Amino acid sequence: MPEGKKRAKELFSSGFNCAEAVSISVCGVTGVGGSVVPVAATGFGGGGGGAGGTCGALSGAFLAVSLKYGRTSSDQDRRNTYRICQPIFDGFVAEMGAASCRELTGLDLRTREGGQRLRESGIHERVCAKAVEVSERLALERIRIQESGGG
User: Count of domains in the chain?
Assistant: First the structure.
């Protein structure tokens, strides 16, 4: 599998939201998903439609992992996908200090003021861009471990 090249941050800087950027980048490396990826990821941005829940960058990583390793029927085992996602979550929290968009940004993105402050204060570039980079890296690391048989 080719190395990731921090493409997620470039995508994020070009206007894709955090979830779209991470999922497009990771899926591009793994070769899954295609054109449905940004469509499927859009609603995860801002912690779920701007609601401040789980960071969209982290959700984008989970989406990409699920597209690669997820199950296609309810009788299949989901534990392998969970084993890949859990260290991504734990690593993200260890590096970023929280998993929630609201905790990371300190803002309520459901309000116009919150969205405005996100961009004007530089949080978008400092916190969100870092979350995008961390999520991309952690997802690609876990996928590489899985691919090498180290699951």
Answer: 1
Q: Would you say residue 134 lies in a domain?
A: yes
Domain span at residue 106 reads 7-147
Q: Does any domain span residue 52?
A: yes
How far from 76 is each of 26, 84, 85, 139, 142, CA to CA, in Å?
24, 16, 17, 22, 21
98 — pLDDT class (breaks 50, 70, 90):
very high
Spacing of C-alpha 139 from chain mean position: 8
pLDDT 10s digits, 36-65: 999 999 999 999 999 999 999 999 999 999
Domain assignment present for residue 89? The answer is yes
Q: How far apart are CA 84 and CA 80, in angstroms?
A: 6
